[in-house]
Each structure stands twice: as structure tokens, then as C-alpha cells.
């Protein structure tokens, strides 16, 4: 399994200036190579290298960075072509697609740049990297990350890392390769219900609430309203910065929740049952003030964090159909809208079972998970 670990660099002012100049030089060179690719029509890496390698290298880039720049350009054209073919740019002949295909791909001055082991080396005890720049090798650039991230990097980092600058902060996105852990046969399932007030609720009754996250989102929404009225360039920049910060905060919250859930499942020898999230936006109906907090990508992100953390620990994961999980009684199976008198409470009109609404839903998800697992593994046994 491959995954990307992100660490933040803490360069001195001088080091930051060198990194900035390096990214700019790489992306200037990429723009040059991109124009060449566009005019010659040679967009594959090997052909493009013939046309551009000498010039790109002569711009102060070494052999390795020059090759990475050319590969980056070739990859960008491959992606463009794939997007066009998949219809992501609109149908053939439409204005948007024609516009995208009528000019060379361009790279921002701070677009990400890959570094291989010859251009970037890691010191995992000192928490520093040494990195190639256009003004020479920078040594002792400090980096920080969570304990988990640092451990993962030290054990599994392999191949290239991307140097990225966002909102004036520097990051390395490092690829880690982890060998697959065999899935342990689960003894029961933890059901996970995803929601708004409680981001995730388990069938054990653990509620992971998104209080801090929802507060940040509401604050940003207010700010957005004020800034959008202004519509100046600096207002737009500030908005973008806030949105990114919100996304980072959401990712951090999701990581922590995913970790707690997977740890608990592993400790108790169980698998994890998740809702199949297709169409979550249609399914969740909310009062207006809550609507803003619903970001389906955030649910998908939490689901994928749980899935990959589970895979790392050999914990089984199953996705179940979420239909009626909130209206069905987890004790007797009776389905009724009236079972759910309010957002937070579940009270069965048939058997009288009462529970927090999200916990009841999570229990339904857990039992569907167990049933689904039994069915799919019966098929395995038969085969
Ligand atoms: Zn009941």
C-alpha cells in the first residue's frame, strides 16, 4: 500500500528564499518545456527530453531536477489528455475543452516539484532534511510532523517527495510504501454512523463530535459573506487561505477520529462497518444553518482515513447500504419514521427500545456489516 505523508518544513528566512527561488526556476523551466511540447507536438517524456534537456539543465538545474521537470511536463499533458477523454473538460468541440487544448499547459511559480533521493536526504533523528536548491545544497532544514507521521517516514519512506509551498508555509509530501498486512478474521463489527453534530458515532456509543470543526466552519462562513461582498483581490486571497486552513483542520480532526475508531476495533478483534457513501448529499436533509457544515468530501475523507488505517493494521472493513439505518430499530428491526421523534433521540414505537439516534444507527450499520461479511465469506468458502 502506498500512502503520502506530509511534513512541514521550518526553513530559516534565508533557506526559505533559496527554496522559493528553486521552485520558481523549476517552474520557469517547466513552462519553457511545456511550450516546446505544445509547439512540437512531442509530449512524451523521452521525445520531450531530446528537445529540452540541454536548455532546462542550462537554466541552473542539475541533471536530476531537469529530468523531473521534463517528466512533470509530460505527465501534465498525459493528465490533460486523460481528462479530455474522460469528458471532464466538457464534450468534444465545446468552448472550455477547446480553450484547454489550444494553449500550452502552464505552471505557477510555486507549483509542486518532485525531489528524488539524490536531491533530498532525510535525517530522522535530527528531524532535518538536506535538499538541493539552485543556490547550492541546503543542509539542516528542520521539519515537523506528528509522532505517527515521523515514525512512518523513518520506517517506510521510499522514492520521491514533492516540495510544496502553501500560504507561505513549506511542506514535503513523501511517499511511503507499506507492505500489506493480512486481514484478521473479525469477531463482530464496530458500526460507524457519520453525521453533522457528531462527525462519527460508533455502535459502542462513542460519539466523536465535531464541535471545534463546526465552529471553525461557521466562523469562516460569516467571514466569507463579508469578504465576498468586497470581491477585491486581497479579499479573495484571504478567502482562499481560510478555506485551506479549514480543510487542514478538518483533515486533522478526521485523522484523529479514524485513529480512535481503528484502535478500538483492533483492540477488540472486530472489523469496521461503514456506510456506503454514494449519494450522501441526497440522503442527509438538514435545517438551513446546518447545511453549510455538510461537506460530502469530508465524509469521504474520514471513510478513506479509516479504510487505510484499518488496512495497515489488518482490520477488516466492510461498506453497507445505509438505507433506513436512522429509522430502523436496532433491537427489533421495526422501521418507522415515528421512531425518530427528534434529531437526537430514537424511540421504537413497537418494542419501546430507546437510544441516542446516532448510536442506534451505528448499531444497525454494525449488524449489516456482520451479515454482509458472512454472506461474502460464504461465497469465498463455496469458491
Ligand atoms: Zn424496536
UniProtKB/TrEMBL annotation:
Gene Ontology MF: a single term: endonuclease activity
Family from the record: In the N-terminal section; belongs to the transposase 2 family. In the C-terminal section; belongs to the transposase 35 family.
InterPro entries: Cas12f1-like_TNB (IPR010095), RNA-guided_DNA_endo/Transpos (IPR051399), Transposase (IPR001959)
Keyword presence, Hydrolase: yes
Superkingdom field: Bacteria
Species the sequence originates in: Microtetraspora malaysiensis
Keyword set includes ATP-binding: no
Protein name: RNA-guided endonuclease InsQ/TnpB family protein
Transmembrane parts of this sequence: none
Boundaries of every Cas12f1-like TNB domain copy: 299-365
Pfam families: Cas12f1-like_TNB, OrfB_IS605
Keyword vocabulary terms for this entry: DNA recombination, DNA-binding, Endonuclease, Hydrolase, Nuclease, Transposition
Domain Probable transposase IS891/IS1136/IS1341: 177-268
